[in-house]
Design goal:
The chain has 112 residues and is mostly helical. The protein has a two-stranded antiparallel ribbon with strand order 1-2.
Length: 112
């Protein structure tokens, strides 16, 4: 993995460390939304939501476009796929280790 890829991964996981940002990602997984729409369920200011969106943008998890007067936010599925792929790689390694340990334990049980 290149240094640039590691940096992107670090920014994405850091961004997802905040519950508000995770909730924004969950909302955007259902459909695109404006800052006003994203801010509705929260008891924080629109400016605070905007700052969270900027963090998610800087992490490469979301993008924004212009649609007339609207500036909808969009979830970037490729960025989430990169995170999922990284997690899956490590999950598979751990699962292999656990299967090996299970096999050793089964062998020990049979020998008793």
């Amino acid at each position: 993995m290149s240094a640039d890829e590691e940096d992107r991964l670090d920014r994405a996981f850091t961004a997802l460390g905040d519950p508000v940002r995770r909730a924004l990602i969950a909302r955007l997984s259902r459909s695109d939304a404006t800052v006003n729409e994203l801010a509705e369920p929260f008891s924080i200011t629109k400016q605070a939501v905007s700052r969270h969106i900027q963090v998610l943008e800087a992490a490469g998890l979301i993008t924004r476009s212009r649609d007339g007067q609207r500036r909808p936010c969009h979830l970037d599925p490729a960025a989430l796929e990169a995170l999922t792929s990284w997690i899956d790689t490590h999950r598979l390694v751990v699962e292999r280790r656990h299967r090996s340990l299970d096999a050793v334990l089964d062998t020990l049980k049979e020998q008793e």
